[in-house]
Amino acid sequence: MARKLPRKDVVIVGLGWTGSILANELTDEGLDVVAIERGPWRNTATDFNVGYMQDELRYAIRKDLFLRPAQSTLTFRNNVEQEALPIREFGSFLPGNGVGGAGVHWNGQTWRFLPSDFRCRSHLSERYGEKFIPDELTIQDWGVTYEEMEPYYDKFEYLAGVSGKAGNINGKRQDGGNPFEGARARDYPLPPLDMTYGPKLFAEGAREAGYHPFPQPAANASRSYTNTLGVEMGACSYCGFCERFGCANYSKASPQTTILPVLMRKPNFECRTNSEVVRINLDRSGKRATGVTYVDAQGQEWEQPGDLVLVCAFILFNVHMLLVSGIGKPYDPKTATGTVGRNYTYQTYAGVEMFFDNKNFNPFIATGAIGQCIDDFNGDNFDHSGLDFVGGAGIMCASTNARPIATRPTPPGTPRWGSTWKKATTDNYLSSLYLNAQGGSYATRGNYLDLDPTYKDRLGRPLLRMTFDFPDNDIRMISYVTRKAEEIAKVMTPRQIVPHYRTKPYSVVPYQSTHNIGGAIMGSDPKTSVVNKYLQSWDVPNVFVIGASAFPQNAGYNPTDTVGALAYKAADAIRNLYLKNEGPLVPA
Amino acid sequence: MKKISGSSLSRRQFLASTAVSILFTSTSGSLARSFSGQLPWSPFAGDPPTPVRPGPWLFFTHDEAQTIEAIVDRIIPADDLSIGGKDAGCAVFIDRQLAGFFGNFERLYMKGPFAKGFPQQGLQSPILPTQRYRAGLAALDDYCRTTFSGRAFSALALPEQDKVLQELENGSIDLDDADTKTFFELVLQNTMEGFFADPIYGGNKDMVSWKMIGFPGARYDYRDFVGNHNQPYPLPPVSIMGRGDWGGKG
């Protein structure tokens, strides 16, 4: 039996990036806010300690900071013909856990989406005609434009201390930046990171091939930085322990390094850790949330009443929370009706490996977001007329680490053990490079999330079920861009080039990306979206669902900048619209 | 929505002087806690790793230890590039891993029902690493005794050992009572972990693998060298425990 706690103005589910941003904004408004986090408290000095954070086995291989499947996982199948089975060990993607969420272990690659990405279907229809869009795709517009997003992108980038070079300031091209990006109001808060040798060679090769290289925007501080909340960050030391690790150096932007030092000092904020929200409670009408029920580490159930509930977990668990709480109509792929779980997408990766003679890249000198990129084949930056796909991918040389348990490239055909393996490993460790093609992921009718009929989590709730395979459109897209990457690789004259094309079926085993997207998508029509342009639930207006769950499909970029911008956008709407007039902000 | 009043704020500020309160009493290590009013902080609150100490086997029996030492010494043979897997401590590493949370897949989702599934659905077996090693090593020695007139794996000549391992890898040997391919992959993965992980876990003795490939280990600041393109990094590796010539145990 749940024990009832005193009411709060705002109850936040999960204290990662979006929960921290919303909590900080709404406590500034004078509201009494509680965040309920299923994982532990974490801070830099204690949990990302400089004395032992450089431990590949513990953090990257045994995944110490991540959500442990024993606590929660999901089931997976490629299509409805298969039986979904539990992901017993996370591989393809690695959800975060604890205070800071996935903001602890990300790399810091901080991209804005293209203006055309936000008007995906309209843009493609206007440029090529509606019939050009492959039938299998259920891509749609976001219900928000890039111009509306710009101030919120700016706000997140100045919070996070992003290092980069603008390519377009108020419509004016800037040398050395990304010429394809949407107009930004001002340059990045910090100059780009110092470039390592591999990305420099790639930039030279790409320029020679006629493309437009620029440094990757990085939430790894290139200089010491005092952010917009007055929190100080240290300059990045290029240690090469970024993704899968917390930053011991206060250089990678995370809730810990940018918000929590301010938020935690506020008397009207409270964080409860090791406490997992079981469901959002609704009143009898089903149209109003009354708060949440959660279970603490000792198994005691608590009811936390609140006037406003913000769902700020990792995207998969945002969708799960709506489904187990009965908020919104679950999507049914047979009839293509319902919205919750619809348009689940991912990220489409491929790459090109290069082996050089007589080069030393010192690949262990790295940061999570260092690198040079070209955007010439991303989104709709190139003419798709005559091509058999829509969408695109960025190409980048962004060596993020050379931690040797996982990263020791050898040419194909090399044995995996013995003296021959050892020699090949030693010969190639310092002298190989990788080009990534990071492609968008477009929604289809058959890729979706719902509840599993068989498998349960430790609290007895059905696990989330993922049904996903790569759309044929996306496979054609990434193959095209991978061939372009191969052409650039040839200009760089390595001894050997090994392309790694993406093929079906999608597998949850090898790591690809933790850019899980969609399932509680935003839009202008309640029949095809779960939340409105302010991330407010169409069905239960005092519930907002914040995160990459809101993207209707994915672009060829990392999601965090857009997630942060959407969090600020939702906070702005709550502060300036919702609190003045509680109810739907957009008529259904 | 009701905004909190000024008097409520000051009351809460007063309460915040005890910033960290344990919400609910328990003796568990992962308490549900409530934090408000300041960043929680207590001195020496870190969670450093525990160094592996030499000593008796924690998981392997004497016979199993002989077999696994022979295997890791062929996966990573001694040659002019490095010492072998046995001397590097890979078997000790695996032993200590199996005795810890890894051995029983404590962190994984191990609820049934178990079904075979497709390869792209990943690990679906209920068999734990401890069980896989126990059954696999026994089955391997049984196979060798039957095939090589009574000799266990560790008693085979080195070329014979290599041949058996190759056949395990390519699936041409099917060991009784063991999923042969999965067993081989697990041993290969754990041996490489032991060889390349920080020496604090019992393998990679004297950072031998890091010296071999040129990885500087647990260093944390390369700012001075970022711009020195295409030049060898001049400093030797360092472990979480330091380095031998510091007088420590590196």
UniProtKB/TrEMBL annotation, chain A:
Transmembrane segments: none annotated. One of its GO terms (molecular function) is oxidoreductase activity, acting on CH-OH group of donors. It holds the Pfam family GMC_oxred_C. Coiled coil: none annotated. InterPro entries: FAD/NAD-bd_sf, GMC_OxRdtase_N, GMC_OxRtase_C. Gene3D superfamilies: FAD/NAD(P)-binding domain. SUPFAM superfamilies: FAD/NAD(P)-binding domain. Keywords: FAD, Flavoprotein, Oxidoreductase. Residues 447-567 form the Glucose-methanol-choline oxidoreductase C-terminal domain. Residues 232-345 form the Glucose-methanol-choline oxidoreductase N-terminal domain. Belongs to the GMC oxidoreductase family. This is GMC family oxidoreductase. It comes from Phyllobacterium phragmitis. The lineage of its organism: Bacteria, Pseudomonadati, Pseudomonadota, Alphaproteobacteria, Hyphomicrobiales.
From TrEMBL, chain B:
PROSITE patterns: TAT. The lineage of its organism: Bacteria, Pseudomonadati, Pseudomonadota, Alphaproteobacteria, Hyphomicrobiales. This is Gluconate 2-dehydrogenase. InterPro entries: Gluconate_2DH_su3, TAT_signal.
